[in-house]
Structure formats: C-alpha cells, structure tokens
C-alpha cells in the first residue's frame, strides 16, 4: 500500500518535471528570437 503511494508521488513528480522541461524547451526559442530582434 505504501509502495503504491510512493510510486504515485514519484510518478506525479516526474510528470511535473517533464512538463516543466518541455515548457522551457518551447519557451527558449521564443525568448531567443525576442532577444535577437531587440539586438537588431
């Protein structure tokens, strides 16, 4: 029972971590483009 609970917490944490990484990956190019436009 406790093992299942721990597994759920870990899986939720991993999902959140993965989603935040995906967000940073999609946001990075946009920020990069904005910075380049400002530089020019």
Topology:
Elements: H1 2-39
Overview of the structural elements:
The structure is a single chain. With 40 residues, this protein is an all-alpha fold. The radius of gyration is 17 Å and the shape is rod-shaped. The model has no long low-confidence stretch (mean pLDDT 82).
Please outline what is shown here.
This protein is mainly alpha-helical and 40 residues long.
- Quote the distance from N terminus to C terminus: 59 Å
Helix content: over 70%
Taken from the alpha-carbon principal axes, the silhouette is rod-shaped
Task: Determine Rg (CA atoms, Å).
Answer: 17 Å
Count the DSSP helices.
Answer: 1
> What's the β-strand tally?
0
Give the strand content. Answer: under 5%
Largest sheet: none
How would you state the average pLDDT, rounded?
Answer: 82
The poorly predicted ranges are none
Structural class, judged by helices and strands?
A: mainly alpha
Along the chain, the helix and strand elements come as H
Features:
mainly alpha, 95% helix
């Amino acid at each position: 029972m406790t093992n299942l609970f721990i597994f759920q917490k870990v899986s939720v944490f991993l999902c959140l971590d993965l989603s935040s990484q995906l967000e940073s990956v999609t946001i990075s190019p946009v920020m990069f483009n904005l910075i380049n436009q400002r530089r020019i």
